[in-house]
Amino acid sequence: MKDIVRQKIGINVDVMDLLNEQIAKEAHSAAVYLAMASWCDHNGLIYSAEFFYKQSYEEREHMLKIFKFINENGGTAYSPEVSNINHDFNSLQEIFETALDQEIQISKSIHNIVTKCRKVMDYGTENFLQWFIQEQMEEENQFRRILEMFDLMGTDGIALKLIDERVKHVE
Amino acid sequence: MNLLYKTYYFSSYQCDQRRCFYIDFGHKQVKLSFCQLLALRQKVQTIDIASHFDKDLNYSGIEIITLCNREHLFVFDTLQVMDLKQLLKATFGILELNSLVLH
Ligand SMILES: [Fe+2]
Ligand SMILES: [Fe+2]
Fold first, then answer.
1. Which CATH class is domain A11-79+87-167?
2. Domain boundaries in chain A?
3. Taking the model in full, what pTM does it have?
4. From the list A3, A13, A17, which residue is nearest B98 (CB)?
5. What pLDDT, in 10s, does the model give residues A92-129?
6. Where are the domains of chain B?
7. Which residue is closest to A4 within chain B, CA to CA?
């Protein structure tokens, strides 16, 4: 019997399912960052707002990267539904902590897909995901550095204003 | 045509010559490209079978599924849905096995 599946699709079908789940996670991240940007904007933290608008845009780019990868390799990418976006925060520090936690969850999720790739010997997708592993390390570190500012400078009054201004220099 | 898997209600086939798949639904046979088979797999996978046992979530206990860009329409009851889930899971399992044997 011919291997028609392999003729049609370059990635493992179960890995494709995980990639589709990852698409939904990236879309969710994009929406979460947008909610955070809104909160910052309303609370006069304009640089942090700008920072989260940019983060949101990047998450959408991540989503598209995976989306196109699936389709280019013969699979089917599914446009995700996004729900459950929280808009209530108590402080800027809480926002950055939540953001770091979210990035850690995303890192774990990517690692989980890589583990699956190795199990089913889908080395093409594993190679594709290397970029995401690197990207996640950078993003986690970025949030860690911002959170360190709160440790050093405090969380209210002038410190908050100073931290907000410094956020724009974090890359 | 090669039989891939057979369940109580349905069976799946691969046709080497036409490079496509067939699913026999009992009253009719549907030809599917790989893409369409993937789409069916996704639809069936996402059916929440637990909702069939909850009157508030799925009152009638049926599932309406369209196939091949709505060329076909099927109405399945709970048992058939469970059967279909089994069919697709096993069919893709067999296809993966075939791939392992060949390469
Ligand atoms: Fe991301
Ligand atoms: Fe991220």
1. mainly alpha
2. 11-79+87-167
3. 0.93
4. A3
5. 999 999 999 999 999 999 999 999 999 999 999 999 99
6. 2-102
7. B19
CA distance readout (Å), B5 to A28, A111, A165, B13, B92: 37, 33, 63, 7, 9
Strand pairing category for B62-67 and B29-32: unpaired
Distance CA(B44)–CA(B9), nearest Å, equals: 15
Q: Which of residues 1-20 of A touch B (CB under 8 A)?
A: 1-9, 13, 17
pLDDT digits (tens, 9 = 90+) for A121-162: 999 999 999 999 999 999 999 999 999 999 999 988 899 999
Provide, as residue numbers in chain B, all residues whose Cβ is less than 8 Å from the Cβ of A5: 34, 95-96, 98-99
Residue with tokens 């929440």: B48
Q: Does A81 touch chain B (CB under 8 A)?
A: no
Nearest CB among B92, B102, B103 relative to A13 is that of B92
